[in-house]
């Protein structure tokens, strides 16, 4: 029996620890800049900004977070006056999500920090490196989604 190298290598551990390092670095930078914002709050803020009118179910799917977690984070963003729920025009049972003016301002101020952390992590890797990384991660994602 031939052993697959992936059987012995905990590649998922490398992925997980890398993600944690990036999240910790971003959180530290947000804190140092004086933002009252967690990385998870940023993720939702970012997706609502880029997808105005998205509903909570779509947001949960897009961010790969469970619905109760999304609801809890959204409630915090709403209490901070960064986001708002509006009744959906086509379905009274749903709400569409939007940034408030304060939320848009915070997004605009925090985005350069997020970009700087991403650039630091990427370093001097090439476009080919990016294409290879996304190809590999997409393959892993598809394999575990089957």
Features:
146 residues; mainly alpha; two-stranded antiparallel sheet
Q: Strand percentage, roughly?
A: 5-15%
Q: Please state the structural category.
A: mainly alpha
Number of helices: 7
- Give the biggest beta sheet: 2 strands, antiparallel
Task: State the total count of DSSP E strands.
Answer: 2
Shape by Cα distribution: globular
Fraction in helix = 55-70%
In angstroms, what is the radius of gyration?
18 Å
The SSE string, one letter per element, is HHHHHEEHH
Strand ordering within the main sheet: 1-2
What are the low-pLDDT stretches, counting only 5+ consecutive residues below 50? none
Question: Span from first to last CA?
Answer: 25 Å
Mean pLDDT: 93
Describe the structure.
It is a single chain. This protein is mostly helical. Helix content is 68%, strand content 7%. It has 7 helices and 2 strands; from the N terminus they run H-H-H-H-H-E-E-H-H. It has a two-stranded antiparallel sheet. Strand 1 (83-87) and strand 2 (95-99) form a beta hairpin. Helix 2 (11-32) crosses helix 6 (101-122) and helix 4 packs across helix 5 (67-79). It starts with a helix and ends with a helix. The model has no long low-confidence stretch (mean pLDDT 93).
